[in-house]
Every structure is written in structure tokens, then in C-alpha cells.
Amino acid sequence: MEKKAIIEVFGQLGKAISAFTSNEEWPGYECGLTEEEFQSFQRLINKEVQLNPWFTRGNCIKALNGIIHLIEKESLEKFSDSYPFASKPKTIALIMAGNLPFVGFHDLLCVLITGNRALCKLSSSDTRIPMKLIEWMHEWNPELKDYIWVSLGPIRNYDAVIATGSNSSIAQFEAYFSHVPHLFRKNRTSIAVLDGSETNEELNKLGSDCFDFFGMGCRNVSKLYLPAGFDLNRIFENFLDQAYLIQHHKYGNNYDYNRTVYLMNQIPFLDNNVFMLKEDKDIHAPLSVIYYEFYEEKALLLSEVAGMKEELQAIVGHEFIPFGKAQAPDITDFADGIDTCAWLNSLA
């Protein structure tokens, strides 16, 4: 299969998703979907929250818009030119996480754009959206049926593995997949480094960095580094857009649980009835909690942050990722800072 054909299919996918996220009604055949296919996907998205309460319609749409951003044709062509296209395709097993809707899409993209085949093992928490998008791709170019498979049982006959999961999953990954070339990804989190000059608009965007997808992604900010004397009220005042979170029953349960634990153990925290701020040296905060820490010298802080490389996915701040962009990675923002495409090319 030629690279050009793969890019064309991704372009069509972006067109179809864009038509869906931009219109409540079927916009016509130019979107690449029939009216029944369009309405069927509407029903699928609306039903997701019933099957996985974390996958609200808003979060599904947000994730789909993120996919559109990744496969914009011009940037995808430029991106693909940086990597050789395999003359002898390898079969890459993709063990995908399920914390966010189709969170493994970037890995699928990297596998195909380098000319390899993807054997997908989907998370039980996230099967329906990936299956439907893959079905569309097969329909638009039947050749892709030989390049993308979804395994519903044990996976076999693969040349390499990219596996994403929790820290506790790593031992299982090692047991099952260490005999082949592999990329194993475990828990990471993200932080924000503030310098005190942030505008209210930037802090408002920081709220999204913390709580998009309920804060369940590795690119969500869970720890704030603040200059000494920073007014914490500015965080609460500019995170008001996140008030909707507490209306979600599963998020609310996490909030109630963590608040109760802190109260019972007389652990100090600040609270606005939506989320909590807790001063803590750790960077991995539980759901509904943001840790913070004050610093005196930025140079010393940055030296400390550099030592956290293996635990961090993203850093937000004036010298880092812009506020509001933590959950909008570009196509070149590889997970764990490892160039997935270069790694795939090394398998040839």
C-alpha cells in the first residue's frame, strides 16, 4: 500500500469527523458518510456515556477534534516526509489505554504512516469509537483491511509491541511481550510552572489543562509550581468554568471521597466545592485534587523538574507548552518524548 493512499484515507477521516463535530444534521455526501452512517455515529456517541460514564458527549467531541488536528492533510504530509516508508511492513501490536476516547489514535497513525501494519487490542473501556472509525477507513480503502486489524481475543503473530497502561500493567507487559521489540508506557502526569505574571485568561485556560476529560489524562496538569507569595484565590477565581465537574456523579464521588479522607485525617487543604488545592511535594494528585508547591528560585526549580523527566508527560507555562494546549498535542508531540515513528523505522 502506498503512503499517498494512507494519507488520503486519513484526510477523508478528518473530513468526516469534522462534519460530525460541526453539524448536528447530516451535511451531505461530501463528508464521506451516508445519512444513516452519520446518524448512526450520532447515536453511538450519545450512548457512550451510558456505557462509560466518563465518556460524555462533550469529551467524545473534544477527543474527536483532537484527532482532526492530528490528521490535517498538509501537516500530515510534511510529518510523513520525515520518515521512510517500510518496503517490508512489520505487524505492530498496539495495546491501547482506555482512559480517554481513542487515546491510542496517534500510535495507530504512526504505525500506518511508516508503512507498517497495526494489530489493535482495544481497552474494554473504549471499543466503540475506535471500531467505528476503523470501519470507515476499511470502507474507504479496502486495502487497509490488510493493514489494520482489531483483535477481540489474545493477540498473536506480531513483530513488535507498543503497550500503554498503568504502572501495575508493566509487569504483565514484560511477561507477555518482552521477547519482541517493544515500547512500554506507564503512568505519567503533567505539571505547570507559573511565574506570577499570568493573566486571568491564561489561568482560565490552565483550568482546562487541569480538568479537560475530568483530569484523567497523562497530559492533564495535576501539580502547580507557584512563585512564593502567589495568591491561591486567583486559581479558584479563574477556574470557575470548571464548576460543571461536580455535577458528574463519578467525579463527584471522587471529590467526596478525597475530601472525606482529608477531613478525617486532619490534612490541610483548600476547597471551592468543585476541586481541592493541597500543598504537596508529590506530583501525582488524585482525581478532583490539584497539588501545589511554592518555589523561591526558578533556576533551582527547573533543575528539580529536569530530574522528573521519566514521570512527566507535559509541562505548561510561559517557557513551555502554552496555557490551554496541554490536551491539544501536535502530531510531533510523541508520548513519553520518544519518537514513535523513528522507533518503528528502526525495526526494519
What does this 3D model show about the protein?
With about 350 residues, the chain is α/β, with parallel strands linked by helices. It has two domains: about 5-185, Aldehyde Dehydrogenase, Chain A, domain 1; about 190-315, Aldehyde Dehydrogenase, Chain A, domain 2, CATH 3.40.309.10. The chain is built from twelve helices and eleven strands. It has helices spanning about 5-20, 35-50, 55-70, 75-80, 105-115, 130-140, 170-175, 200-210, 235-240, 250-265, 300-305, 340-345, and strands at about 90-95, 115-120, 150, 160-165, 180-185, 190-195, 220-225, 270, 275-280, 290-295, 310-315. The strands form two sheets. The chain has a six-stranded mixed β-sheet with strand order 8-9-10-7-6-11. A five-stranded parallel β-sheet has the order 3-2-1-4-5, sandwiched between helices. Helix 6 (about 130-140) links the parallel strand 2 (about 115-120) and strand 3. Helix 1 packs antiparallel against helix 3. The longest helix has 20 residues, at about 5-20. The two termini are about 15 Å apart. The model has no long low-confidence stretch (mean pLDDT about 95). Pfam families: LuxC. It comes from Fluviicola chungangensis. One of its GO terms (molecular function) is acyl-CoA dehydrogenase activity.
The quaternary structure here is single chain
Query: What is the CA-CA span between the terminal residues?
Result: 17 Å
Q: What name is given to the CATH topology of the largest domain? A: Aldehyde Dehydrogenase, Chain A, domain 1
Q: Percent of residues in helical segments?
A: 25-40%
* Proportion of residues in β-strands: 5-15%
What is the H/E string? Answer: HHHHEHEHEEHEEHEHHEEEHEH
Q: What is the CATH class name of the largest domain?
A: Alpha Beta
> Strand sequence of the main sheet, in spatial order?
8-9-10-7-6-11
Fourth-tier CATH superfamily name of the largest domain = Aldehyde Dehydrogenase, Chain A, domain 1
Number of strands: 11
The domain count comes to 2
What is the rounded Rg?
21 Å
Number of helices: 12
Unreliable stretches: none
Which shape, going by the Cα principal axes? Answer: globular
CATH architectural label of the largest domain: 3-Layer(aba) Sandwich
GO molecular function: acyl-CoA dehydrogenase activity
InterPro entries: Ald_DH/histidinol_DH, CoA_reduct_LuxC
Keywords: NADP
Pfam families: LuxC (PF05893)
